[in-house]
Design brief:
Elements lengths: L1 H13 L4 H15 L5 H11 L6 H14 L2 H13 L5 H17 L2 H18 L4 H12 L9 H10 L3 H7 L1 H22 L12 H7 L1 H15 L5 H19 L5 H34 L2 H12 L3 H18 L2 H18 L4 H14 L8 H10 L7 H20 L2 H10 L3
């Protein structure tokens, strides 16, 4: 059964069949090969999405789309530019910083790509940056949207591995700040070497004026994250609060969302949410079947025999996840792999929260690596260029994130220090 499922899935991937359909078809053939009843598919697909924390996904997607249309993202760009935009290379640094702030609300890298990219990619091109560089920078920076909490992949990992989502969220700040800081340093040095961005400070608002304009936008992550860690509401309830706040700010305060816009915003959000939920449902069925076949236990014992130390295990997992992330969508990969790998990591004495951050950061790389990097497609759509043109400019950014991943992997304190302080008993 397992061989039939894996062969079918790989073949479908090779034929460029969508991930969700590939996983679902492989699961159906697996059921047939094992002579099980087809009603299992309905039951397990329903069980996969019948989890309260997953309700946060459509709400965070809707909040991101409301922020994009309601002018919140544009004001965040101006605020970030007032902080770092006055130096050479300040505009690409603004891109990274804005994505960090936006990621603290949206929870989605794709939403971050569109919301921030529509503002900053044209601005970068106008200031003389190559269009390919602008698109590669935006795709990479938007990756921070799933590392800095709240994060949809963290929610999925928490549900799949039965780990506290609150602890995952608070642990995401360290890796997010590390990667964001490394990217800003890299673009600053690059611009100095290549002579780009000497006029990035043009039309830059003062910090006071930009802060006043963005005050309502900046209050949003404070309310969301403060409410979560203050025990006022759960991460799932925070997603609904984010929608309500973005709607009020966009319609009443900034007055940039019209009644006619709401239909398009809701339609776009429903379509994005449906795609993710369809992947989750099919991946849940797939995970159930391979667990029933004993694959997780077999893999766990094999890893324990071959990778005998935690350091080797983490290295092997990083290499495997990096390759998997190139071909399988992040949400599907987490749902399928987290129940398999998390118990093995715990056997090696690795904190499941730390391992979750390693998984999320690693698979987030898949969003910016060909051939199926969703951030790349989104950034290329905004920049109106083909995917193959940005590969050369993208490679250095991938190497920077990879270097940060190695530090995050082997220095657990980056992820766990803040968690231990907040959740100290």
């Amino acid at each position: 059964m397992t061989i039939v499922m894996l062969t079918t899935m790989v073949l479908c991937f090779a034929l460029t069949v969508s991930v969700a359909v590939s996983i679902g078809l492989a699961s159906i053939l697996g059921i047939q090969a094992s002579n099980a009843h087809m009603l299992i598919s309905v039951k397990e697909m329903f069980n996969a999405i019948n989890k309260f924390p997953l309700a946060a996904i459509p709400f965070f997607i809707l909040a991101g789309n409301l922020m994009e249309t309601g002018g919140i993202s544009r004001r965040l760009v101006e605020f970030a530019k007032s902080i770092v935009g006055g130096v050479q290379g300040g505009l690409p640094m603004t891109c990274v910083l804005t994505c960090m702030i936006f990621g603290a609300v949206s929870g989605s890298s794709v939403a971050t790509t569109f919301a921030i990219g529509t503002v900053l990619i044209p601005a970068l091109i106008k200031h003389g940056y190559p269009v390919t560089y602008a698109a590669a920078l935006q795709a990479t920076s938007a990756e921070l949207g799933v590392i800095i909490p709240p994060s949809i992949p963290m929610i999925l990992y928490g549900v799949s591995a039965e780990v506290s989502i609150g602890e995952l969220f608070i642990s995401g700040f360290g890796p997010g700040i590390l990667i964001g800081g490394a990217l800003m340093l890299f673009v600053f040095v690059t611009c100095r070497i290549k002579g780009w961005g000497k006029n990035d400070g043009d039309s830059r608002l003062s910090f006071r004026k930009a802060s006043l304009q963005a005050s309502w936008a900046l209050l949003m992550p404070v309310i969301i994250l403060g409410g979560i860690y203050g025990g006022i509401f759960t991460p799932t309830e925070a997603s609904a609060v984010a929608v309500f706040y973005a709607l009020v700010v966009g319609t009443v305060i900034y007055r940039e969302i019209r009644l006619a816009d709401l239909y398009l915003i809701l339609r776009k959000s429903v379509m994005s949410s449906a795609v993710i939920m369809f992947i989750i449902a099919n991946a849940g069925l797939f995970a159930f079947l391979i667990t029933r076949a004993g694959v997780p236990d077999a893999i766990g014992h094999w890893l324990q025999d071959v990778l005998k130390t935690p350091a080797y295990f983490l290295l092997g997992v990083n290499a495997a996840l990096f390759l998997i992330g190139m071909f399988i969508e992040t949400s599907a990969a987490i749902i399928v792999l987290a129940p398999i790998l998390a118990p093995v990591a715990m056997h090696f004495g690795i904190d499941p929260v730390h391992f979750g951050l390693v998984m999320v950061v690693n698979l987030a790389l898949g969003m910016i690596t060909p051939p199926f990097g969703v951030n790349l497609f989104a950034a290329c759509t905004v920049a109106r260029i083909s995917l193959d043109r940005i590969i050369r400019d993208l490679a250095p950014f991938v190497l920077v994130v990879l270097a940060c991943l190695m530090v995050i992997t082997y220095v657990p304190a980056i992820s766990l220090t803040l968690r231990d302080l907040v959740y100290a008993k």
